[in-house]
Amino acid sequence: MFDMMKMMGKVKEMQTKMKEAQERLEFIQDTGEAGGGMVKATVNGKKQIISIDIDESLLVKEDKDMVQDLTVAAINMALEKVDIKAKEEIKNSTEGILPNIPGMDFGNMF
Pfam families per the record (predicted)? Predict the structure, then answer.
């Protein structure tokens, strides 16, 4: 028999776990590189840019467009990588709380 009170308790527990996982996203970081490592961008799980490192050899006026392109590429790579880590963190935090419902992936909520 379906126990609504038990289910509501599980939902509340999941909400708490997801909030805790969201708070930890700030501490999950990853770095993307472009141009053979000449441009590096580090982002966190909240999709905030933490740092950008540009090799000094690229800092000449003639290379401005290339540096901009490499910076965008490095940031996008870092965002993709940290997104995977963030989804895994959310998934691990909510695992086992609610039954496996096909099509319901809480890791994709963020």
Answer: YbaB_DNA_bd
- The CATH class of the 24-87 domain is alpha beta
Q: Is there a contact between 50 and 29 (Cβ–Cβ < 8 Å)?
A: yes
Task: Return d(Cα 25, Cα 53) in angstroms, integer.
Answer: 22
- Cα 39 to chain centroid, rounded: 20
State the residue for tokens 């490095």: 74
Residue 55 has pLDDT above 50, yes or no: yes
Domain positions in the chain are 24-87
User: For 19-37, what is the mean pLDDT?
Assistant: 91
How far, in Å, CA of 45 to CA of 85, rounded? Answer: 7
pLDDT at 100: 59
Whole-angstrom distance, CA of residue 27 vs CA of residue 45? 7
